[in-house]
Each structure stands twice: as C-alpha cells, then as structure tokens.
Amino acid sequence: MISEKMKEYVKSSSAIRAMFEEGKRLAKIYGPENVYDFSLGNPSVEAPAEVKEAIIDILNNEDLNMVHGYMNNSGYDDVRTIIANSINNKFGTKFTEKNIIMTVGAAGGLNVIFKSLLNPEDEVIVFAPYFGEYRMYVANYDSKLVIVSPNTVDFQPNLAEFEEKITKKTKAVIVNSPNNPTGVVYSEETIIKLADILKKKQKEFGTEIYLISDEPYRELVYDNIEVPYLTKYYDNTIIGYSYSKSLSLPGERIGYLVIPDEATDSDLIISAANVATRILGFVNAPSLFQRVIAKCLDAEVDVSIYEKNRNLLYNSLVEYGYECVKPEGAFYLFVKSPIEDDIEFCNLAKKHNILIVPGTSFACPGYVRIAYCVSYDRIEKALPEFKKLIDEIRNN
Amino acid sequence: MISEKMKEYVKSSSAIRAMFEEGKRLAKIYGPENVYDFSLGNPSVEAPAEVKEAIIDILNNEDLNMVHGYMNNSGYDDVRTIIANSINNKFGTKFTEKNIIMTVGAAGGLNVIFKSLLNPEDEVIVFAPYFGEYRMYVANYDSKLVIVSPNTVDFQPNLAEFEEKITKKTKAVIVNSPNNPTGVVYSEETIIKLADILKKKQKEFGTEIYLISDEPYRELVYDNIEVPYLTKYYDNTIIGYSYSKSLSLPGERIGYLVIPDEATDSDLIISAANVATRILGFVNAPSLFQRVIAKCLDAEVDVSIYEKNRNLLYNSLVEYGYECVKPEGAFYLFVKSPIEDDIEFCNLAKKHNILIVPGTSFACPGYVRIAYCVSYDRIEKALPEFKKLIDEIRNN
After folding, report:
1. Which residues from A are below 8 Å from B253, CB to CB?
2. Tell me, what's the pLDDT at B23?
3. B342 in helix, strand or coil?
4. B3/A272 touch (CB, cutoff 8 Å), yes or no
5. A and B: number of Cβ contacts within 8 A
6. What percentage of chain A has pLDDT greater than the value 70?
7. Which residue in A258, B24, B65, B139 has a CA-CA distance of 20 to 30 Å to A352?
8. pLDDT-derived band at A16, boundaries 50, 70, 90
9. What SUPFAM superfamilies is this protein classified in (chains A, B) (predicted)?
10. ipTM
C-alpha cells in the first residue's frame, strides 16, 4: 500500500540496511573491538565545550517560552543577524538577517531550496562522485538529475563535460566542497572557471542557473587551505550550511541557507523558502539550537584530531600500495579499488572485518570511500588488515 | 524564477504575513499592551521544570557524541521503547519500538506518512473546519484534498457526507481531535461510527483507507474528558503525535508517528517512513530532545491555566451574546461571526485592536478562531473590547 515512488527507494534502502546489519553480525561474532567500521560519516570528535555551556546559559537566563517557542519560519531575527555578521566578517560579504534562513540541517535546507526553485522537468547538474542523497532530493520535486562524470585525476569537477551538459532546462547545479566522498576542496581556479561557464550559458540561453553550494564540511580543512566563498564569484549562488560537522551536532539538525540579494528574484526566493520551510513540515529549525549556535560562532571542533587520522591512514595506505588523492578536507579518503569491481572489493574488505562504502554509491565505480571519523586507535588497529587485504589481492 | 507551485503559495502567504505586519503596526501605534493578539497557537504556559532538569542531566551524564549524533532515521531505540511502553500503559495497546518513528514535530510526521503512502491522484479526506496546512501537505505529493463540510451544530464530523465522499481513490482520512480550530473532542460514539464507515467502504471497494490521527492537542483537555485512542477502533490507523503543546516545546520540533502492526502492510509502511524521514531532509528528529522527552513522559504543562482562560473567555463571550460551542480541549474558541462575513468581522475586531483568524482559513466561513493561549490578564483586558464590538454590530 505504499506509494509507487517509495517502492524502489525502500528496495535500495534495504541494501544499505543489509550492510549495516552485516556490521552488527560481524560485531556479534568477532566482538565490536575487532570490527573496523569506516562506513559512516558520523563525527567522532566531541562537540566543543562551548555548546554545553551555551545550552545551560540559555536555560538559566533566557525566557523559556521564547527559547522553546515558535518564531518566524525563517528563524529568530537576532540569531540570523549574528550569523550574517559573522559571515560578513570572515568573507567580506554584505548579508543581513534577511538573507539567512535557518534550516533543519543542510539536508533540510537543500529540500527547502529545491522546493522553492524546481519545476518537474527542470534539470539539476551534479558532479560525480556526489553524495547519493541528492538523487532523492531532486526526485522529490520530479526534476531530473544530470550527472557529470568524474575526473579521477584530481577529482576537481570535469568542466568541459559540465559545459556540454548545460541546457535550456538547467535550473540548478550542486557543488559540495570539501567534497563527500573525495575530501577534495575545489580550488579558486576551478570556481572561477565554473562561474564563467555558468555566466556564459545563462547569457546564451537567457535563463537563470542557480549554483547550490552544499557546505557541511567547510570548516574541516587541513594544511591551511582556503575554501572560496562562492557568492563572491557568481551572483546566482545559494549556500546551504550545517553545524553537523563544524560543531559535531549532526543529530540536532541545525543549519542555514544564504540567499544573497544579488541572486535574481532574491526576494521572491526568500519568500518561497519561508513558505517551503513551513509546508514541507519543518516549520522552523530547532529553536534551542538556533540560540546555541548564535553563542558558539567562534567555537570549533578540534580539527587536528581528524588531520592526525588522515595523515596516518593516507600515509599508511599509500605505503601499502593503495592509490588515493590526498584529501584537503572533510573526513573521507576516496581510494582506488585494487580490483575493478568496487562492490566486490568491499566484500573482500568485509572478510577482514573492514566496512567501507563502494564508489558506485557515489556514481564513481572503481573507488571506495573510507570515513576516518573514528578514533586514532581504531585506525591503528585496522592498518594491518588493510595491508593484508591488498597483499592478498596482489598475490592472487 | 521560483517554481510554479510555489507562486500561489507565496501569494496566499503574503496575506497571512500582512495580518502579522498589521499586528506589529497596531502595537507601534497603540503600544503592545493595548493590542490583543489571539491569532497564534503558540503555547503561553511554560515548559514544565522537568524539561530543563532533563537537559542538564543528559548533558552531565550521557555520552555527548551519542546525545548530539546521528542514530537510525527512526530515532534512538531506547527512546522509542520508552514511548511505546508509555502508550501501552495508558491505552492498553501492544506497541514496541518498531511501531514508533520519531519525527520533526507532528507536521514532519504528517509529511513523512504522506510521502510514504500517497500517489498523485489519490484522495485524502478532511473534515471542515480543518487546519489549513493539510492542504499543502497533501499537495506536496500531488494528491487531492476532499473536504467534508462542517457540522456547525456541535462540530462533530459530518459522517453522512463523509460516507458519500469516500471513493475507490480514497487513500487516507485526517482527523484532528482535540480539534484546531474548534477545540471539540471527537466522542467515542463518533469514532466508532467513523471506523464502521471506513471498514464498510474498504470492503465495498476492496481498498485500504488509512486513518491519520493528528494529535498535538491530546493532553490539553478539560472536564476530565477522555480522548479515544484510535488504533483500538480501526486497524489502519496511524497516529501523528507532537510534544509541541503537551510540553510547550513547539520550536523544538519533536514528535512521533505510531504505525501499528495491525495496519495493512505495516512493515512496508514502517520501512517507507524511515526512508521518507531521510529523503525529505529531516534525517532524524532532533537528538537531544528525543532523549529529553524520554525522561519527561510523566511531565505535563499546567493545563489548568488554559482551562481558566477558556472559562473566562467562553463565559464572558456567551454573556455578551456571542455564539460558540464550548470547547473541551486545545486552546481555541470557534465563535460564530455576528455578521455573515467572517473576514469583515475580523477587520471590525482589528479596529478594537483584537487580532483573530477568519474561519474561512479553516474552510468554515461565518466563524472566527480565537486562540486563548495568552495570559489571563490579556483576556481580562480584551473583554471590554469584545463587548463593544458586538454591541456596535447590534446597534448598526
């Protein structure tokens, strides 16, 4: 009796659940300490102490009817002002509270902006490898996902193919940098070229193409690399931000959209996003955590913990003979499968109690994603198994 | 550049915003203490002290990576078990954690279940007067809302018309008791008759019709009245619950769905609801507040405060000559407009600095909704204005 659309989703989600169940099965047989689960992007570094302090401070000093109550669908005015000012200080932008809409995480924000913009038959371009949920988010509004194939040299987007795939029907382009699953940060050079292509194509077709920047990993970067702020390169940019990773609050579902004045029909899009927040059933971003993040804008998780993980895992895997682009952000390694079939490789890894995700899930077969948001100790213990795994394959 | 669907929503939402702006304008001219805003269903009674205690207890004693982290899309297992047991204790049901899916409030839950069940062209029946958002929730999945006209005698649902309006395409029926906007509680007699009609029609058409019970006001009842638990009367019942009103936490967006084993295709619907939670962008209900409510199941807001408000407002308005069914729950009075045109009456009320909502917004013209979730003092101060308002109309 479930809806037609949901039938196939339920089927494919059973596959994911099967993997999850397999992990539980292995943990039962071998003990959880002997199973190396690198399959989930769940932050391992604890939320900074400021979060707890902010919660207690708010509960003790603010009006509780206001703290837990309804507010505008776009969020508390004062919180949005504080966020706008903070972005302006960091990136030299000129946003006000009007440009900020608080959302139920980045996933909620993406659904709000897609509901606001997309008509059935509109096209949305993504660059493989990409976060698989985009497929469903776009399908929620009956639009068509157009996939640009991966550039496996350095995992910067394939811009030549991108330009070819833009049509009159292209309504939006999703970018995600630092990237899930590759950990790659799109360079300023890439962003300038990408923006130039979009400007040219908008002119050619007389259309508006919105660049949707999904940025949950913005703060998780290493080696002092800078992540360009996209509204400065292209007017029709909309940012989807989340505190899930930057403050290790993924379960709290708190983030925001930035809809700049420079975007075409900005006021109308802001109004639409407000209504979409309401009618999709979000109503508003969780209220206490709106107030919490306003007090924690200068707080950050200890990124050096992830960096240490990255260095150990990357250096060791390369030493063993794995091939991988060194990630500059997020907490993923995207490793070339030593055999052609990445799903088969994940199955071989499972025999070593290693759980990783096939690149096929990200529209990039032949690779696997290793999430290193686990304890350093888990990585140390897993390394001999990674070595045995590649040695076995080589000796076959 | 916004989507076609959103264009009309943005237009009608500007009307609501205009009313809101009008309130702000009046407050500026006359001072906020002289404006009587009865337009919003935002709880005025503070969250019980147990909520704050639970938050601090959790932050001090539970693993923060778990408290703020991802979990299954359906929510923490232990929280769902505690909720299932609590429902079983109260209503003699036999739910387990499997039957409970934590949601981003009742609005999130309704969207999850509609995404799970509805195909385009399916019909969903509502009883006027009804909460206007249902219109949009159903339209999100391109299904058709079928409205049963109001029974203005006692605002129990019009069951004769209901029976006539059920067709082969009827996939779901929404009930909301205690009701927004009338405050009426559907009697057990009503529920038994409604269930009998549904059973008969399922048999006649060979279809499954799901009864969706939207229950944010379940705990806000007066005069010791009982609100029947609908899964006990009809197998294909799905409950959407929220803590927004019962614990005064509307901004926190926390609630749950109950999908009983007795519902046809229960397992499949549960799987679909899990996936829908994910792909609609909710991902999971806010994590800290899942843990909070598990510790606050026996806590309740002080309902006597609303009851005192109801008694004062109801008794006074009736004394002045207004006509109204005495509400047994929620925090609304649904009053007959002394003139035929309810929108015009709301405009006349505004001249007395009274803000109320026309029944037309709930598909029930000729009535107005007065939300008495305000302080007792506000009601006392507004009463002379309500009296002047009806006297003026009578003397015209």
Report:
1. 104, 253, 282-287
2. 80
3. helix
4. yes
5. 229
6. 99
7. B65
8. low
9. PLP-dependent transferases
10. 0.96
